Amino acid sequence: SCSYQRFVNCYRCFYKLQPQLTRSIYDQFISQLQASIKEEIQEVKNEGNLEGLFSSLDKIVEAAKDQEEPAWRPSGIPEEDVRSAMVPYLLKHRSYLRRVLREKEEENRKVAESVLMGRDKIAELQQLIQARKQAWQ
């Protein structure tokens, strides 16, 4: 195999002296390396509770089978991902703010009308007071 040839090239002097032993060392090295990798993978699976996460992911996939709309997936372009998530929220918030603004403007218009009516009433009362004062004198 290609990897064995690379191993032989690294230990050429040793291979020339004892080729059988070199092959045995290579086989043992590879088997120990594979066992070590499998052990590391199992440790990662145990530490991260990957089995449980994969089973919950399977449940989510199973539950989503009946949905007509495809699930959201990141596009890989952060600006587009943020835009797709934020624009609907911001549009909804903008319409809410516009509604509140219209309500406040209507409330302010009513208050301004009542203030003007109050001023008119005060002006009328001042004229009435002035007329009675002159009549009294």
Describe the secondary-structure layout.
Layout (H helix, E strand, L loop, with lengths): L1 H9 L1 H6 L1 H29 L2 H14 L14 H59 L1
Question: What does the model show?
Answer:
The protein is mainly alpha-helical and 137 residues long. The protein folds into two domains: 1-48; 86-136. The protein has five helices and no strands. It is rod-shaped. The model has no long low-confidence stretch (mean pLDDT 89).
Which terms would index this structure?
single chain, 137 residues, 5 helices, 0% strand
Outline the low-pLDDT stretches: none
Mean pLDDT: 89
As for the number of domains, it is: 2
**Number of E strands:** 0
Number of helices: 5
Q: How far is the first residue's CA from the last residue's CA? A: 128 Å
Q: Give the overall shape, derived from the CA principal axes.
A: rod-shaped
**Biggest sheet descriptor:** none
Radius of gyration: 42 Å
Strand-residue fraction? under 5%
H and E string: HHHHH
Q: Which structural class is indicated by helix and strand composition?
A: mainly alpha
Q: Work out the helicity level.
A: over 70%
Pfam families: Nnf1
Protein name: PMF1 factor
Organism: Ptilonorhynchus violaceus (Satin bowerbird)
Subcellular location: Chromosome, Centromere, Kinetochore; Nucleus
